[in-house]
Write a structure and sequence with these properties.
The protein is mainly beta and about 325 residues long. Helices cover about 0% and strands about 55% of the residues. A hairpin with a 5-residue loop joins strand 12 and strand 13. The N and C termini lie close together (about 5 Å). It is found in: Cell projection, Cilium. This is WD40 repeat domain-containing protein. InterPro entries: Apc4-like_WD40_dom, Quinoprotein_ADH-like_sf, WD40/YVTN_repeat-like_dom_sf.
């Protein structure tokens, strides 16, 4: 049985990540906790709403109700990167070459590593933001679709339309597809080469967590009593194909998913605090953590795929060592 090193904190954990193999936990009150030769805490935002892991720069980017964007380094150093004035920042993303993007109201902003900021206005509020895996390109999730921008140039944006409220965005690791979460219980996708639509529906709840498998062959999602894992191996993605359903539990809902860094395995967190891992090939399951006090809200593997850091809506967090 894997071992769990628990950390019980009062509050709602929004993100749990590894920086330099050090576990970090970001909470809704803006406090960021880390387990680095003991439990240490720094304060970033005054009211945290969103985070993004900048793996290349080895930092956690945070933003929130105070209209500010901060970075937290592995040693706990906090730096203010940007400000949107009095507007709440409701989405943030980390990109290539030290760039970050964030959304406030109807505007998306891109801050380059040299501190220069470009802004992009939209007719409706910016709900989600993501960087493409290659090149300097962002996707903005909005009402009735998504908009693609090339921030380094002044070219015309690409509009991807689909009726409904789109709340988050993610590019496939090869950059061929864009997938959005929606206010309704569904995902929507576009094949970027030709704009073909991909509708992924049938969820009993909203999808709040997405994770691409190694090499981007699968997209795991929350929002059902199982992790719904869509196949993206073919040139048309999941169109006409059924998803895998991993870790099915009739009495609980999946609230968080995190794919293994090198194997086709997904860690699955549930609304009762349970965490298990499931393998795509044969659906074999391993229990990683028994149910706890609250829903799992954050999961991440370390680089070697041996440890998982997790956080919950009630603040019971910790590190799972797979090897025990």
């Amino acid at each position: 049985m894997p071992t769990v090193a628990p950390l019980d904190i009062d509050g709602h954990c929004l993100a749990a990540v590894f920086l330099n193999d050090i576990p970090f936990f970001a909470f809704a009150d803006g406090a960021v906790h880390r387990l680095d030769h003991g439990h240490k805490t720094v304060q970033a935002n005054d009211g945290l709403l969103c985070t993004a892991l900048d793996a290349a720069a080895n930092r956690l980017v945070t933003a929130g109700e105070d209209g500010k964007v901060f970075s937290i380094r592995a040693d706990g150093t906090v730096e203010e990167l940007a400000s949107a004035g009095r507007k709440w920042i409701t989405s943030v993303a980390a990109g290539p070459q030290g760039a970050i993007a964030y959304g406030a109201g109807r505007y998306a902003f891109v801050r380059f590593a040299d501190g220069k900021v470009k802004e992009f206005a939209h007719p409706r509020s910016v709900e989600g933001i993501a960087f493409a895996p290659k090149g300097m390109r962002i996707a903005v999730a909005r009402y009735n679709g998504a908009t693609l921008h090339f921030p380094a140039t002044d070219g015309k944006p690409t509009e991807l339309e689909w009726a409904g409220a789109h709340t988050g965005a993610t590019f496939s690791p090869d950059g061929a597809f864009l997938v959005t979460t929606m206010q309704e219980n569904a995902l929507h996708g576009w094949k970027l080469a030709d704009g073909k639509h991909m509708r992924m529906s049938g969820y009993p709840a909203k999808v709040k967590s997405l994770s691409w498998s190694t090499k981007g062959k699968w997209l795991a999602s929350s929002g059902a009593p199982a992790a719904i894992v869509w196949p993206f191996q073919g040139k048309d993605g999941p169109m006409g194909k059924a998803p895998l359903e991993l870790g099915t539990r009739g009495d609980a809902m999946v609230t968080c998913v995190a794919c293994h860094p090198s194997e086709e395995v997904v860690a699955i967190g549930y609304d009762d605090g349970m965490v298990l891992a499931s393998r795509f090939a044969d659906q074999k399951e391993v229990l990683l953590r028994r149910p706890g006090k609250g829903a799992v809200t954050a999961l991440m593997w370390d680089g070697e795929g041996r440890r998982i850091v997790f956080g919950t809506a009630t603040g019971d967090c910790g590190v799972i060592d797979i090897a025990g």
